[in-house]
Each structure stands twice: as C-alpha cells, then as structure tokens.
C-alpha cells in the first residue's frame, strides 16, 4: 500500500522553478494586454448557410495573425518542454544556473523535480486548451487561459506556492489522473 | 479595448493573485485543533503502514511524490519525534487515493497529530508552524 518516498532522486534548487515562473508570469501579462487591446471578432462573420464551420474557418486567418496567440503558443511550448523533457532540461533552468545561481547563496536544500514537472504539465494542459478554444472562436478563451496560468505563475514566483503540485490529489480523486505520472 | 483598460484588467489579476497568496499563507501550517472523545482511534493498520505509534503522541504525515514541501516537513517532524514518546509516521498516498479520501487529504503534506490513544487531536495542512506544533505536542507529552 505505502511505499517509501524515493530519496535518491536528484534534486533541483527550489528557487529555479520560482525564477522560471516569474518569467512566465511576465510573458503571460504581456499576452493578456496584447490580446485585450486587439479588436476581438467572435461572431457575425458568416451566415449559417455556408455551413456550421464557415465562421470558424473564415475567421481563422484573423485569429492566426494575432501576436498574442503566438506569444501564448511559445509559452505553451515552454510548458510542454518542462512537462515532457523534465523541469531540469528547461531553458529557464539553464538560464537560472548560468545567470542567477552564481550570484546568490548556495541552495539550503534541494527539491524533488517531480512536483514542478507535474505542475508544468498542468500549465501545458490549460494553455493548450486556451489556444484550441481561441481558434474555435470561444470568446475570451485565450485571455481566460492566460489569466488562469498567470495566477498560478504569480503564486509560484511570489509566494512559492505551487498550485499545479497541489492539484495532484484532487485530480486523482476526481479520476482525471489514473496512475502516477512519475515513478 | 483601450490600453489603460487592459492594464486595469492586469492590475485586477495581480491584486486577486496577491489576495489568494496571502490567504493561503495565513492558513498554511496552522495547527487546527479537532479534539473530541467521539473521534475514532487510528491505528497503524488503518494507515497501511508497519510502524509503531508514539506512547504520548504520533505525527502522521501524508505525502505524495508530487509534493514539494513534503521533504521539509519530513525533516521537521523527524526532528520533533526525537522527543520521548513522540513518533513520526509518513504515509505515501501517491498510489493510494482511497486512503487519501478516507482521511480527507486535499493537499500534501497534511499532518495529523494523534494522542496516546490514537485519536486525532489536530490537523495541519502545509509545512507545520514549528512553535504552534511544539505547544500542542507539549500538552500531549505532559498528560501522558
């Protein structure tokens, strides 16, 4: 039933994910402002006679030429990087080691890499869903997803509170996650 | 939307996030008393662990592999368990969601403080506040 918590796993400096979350929060803030200042067109482009998807397809070029969408897509790719390649191989981690770590005191303790890696996966799921829904024309899908991710990144960087890590048990209990992702 | 309105939306997000963070910080690690004689006794078998409870008090720590604050909590509770009659038992609920549901574990680490009889005296979510926890422990070891 219970198993010993693995102690051998290589740890990461716990300030590294917080540093990455700070960059993510700033990029998300820029995304939100860019998207909100761009004229939004959700409906009314095509009539239903042209088929149910005419509106979505007709507005696709306008939605794809949105700078906020591309910035958001870059953030999504960075979340995917952390989630699938592991938080230790993330470019923000490399930046932290190259720029921040030499200038600050050595870490008091090393943290398990599994929680922040899992949280990156949650971030990826939310931002990827935001992009898909935005392209389908769901009003304010991008702003909504970016805001949710912003709150999580802000709490992580400022309060060292990892919302994604906290979601693990809740998602397991809801049956969204069937088995542990990392071992 | 006008740029100043967009910045206003962003400012609202920052204020809301800060408020959430402050509320979380306030409640995190608090020792919440929950003592009453009707509380059922908990035994090591209920937790599925092969451990011995303390003669005065037991600190039951629920952890998962995805828990960032569990190692720090483990160290602190292990340190507190150096005292006479106090035991620290860690339970990994990563693979055992049934157990987490039975003890209503919504976050890890969650620590239960049990008295000598195995009754839950207090519950702590997050890294426990050491001074608060030491007070509760002192009350238990004094009566034991």
Structural account:
The complex is a heterodimer of chains A (183) and B (144). By secondary structure, chain A is mostly helical. Helices cover 63% and strands 3% of the residues of chain A. Chain A has 7 helices and 2 strands. Chain A has helices at residues 15-37, 54-64, 67-85, 91-100, 114-135, 141-159, 163-174, and strands at 11-13, 110-112. In chain A, strands 1-2 form a two-stranded antiparallel sheet. In chain A, helix 1 packs antiparallel against helix 3, helix 1 (15-37) packs antiparallel against helix 6 and helix 3 runs antiparallel to helix 5 (114-135). The radius of gyration of chain A is 19 Å and the shape is elongated. The relative contact order of chain A is 0.18. The model of chain A is unreliable at 1-8 (pLDDT under 50). Helices cover 42% and strands 19% of the residues of chain B. Chain B has 2 domains: 1-27; 31-143, Glutaredoxin (3-Layer(aba) Sandwich). Chain B has helices at 3-27, 44-47, 70-80, 97-102, 130-143, and strands at residues 32-33, 57-63, 86-92, 110-115, 120-125. Chain B is α+β, with helices and mostly antiparallel strands and 144 residues long. Chain B has a 5-stranded mixed beta sheet. Chain B is built from 5 helices and 5 strands, in the order αβαβαβαββα. Classes of the chains: A mainly alpha (183), B alpha+beta (144).
Count of individual beta strands of chain A: 2
Low-confidence stretches of chain A: 1-8
Shape of chain A: elongated
Roughly how much helix do the residues of chain B carry, as a percent range? 40-55%
Q: Give me the CATH fold name of the largest domain in chain B.
A: Glutaredoxin
Tell me the strand percentage band of chain A: under 5%
Number of individual domains of chain B: 2
Tell me about the biggest sheet of chain A?
A: 2 strands, antiparallel
User: What is the CATH C level class of the largest domain in chain B, in words?
Assistant: Alpha Beta
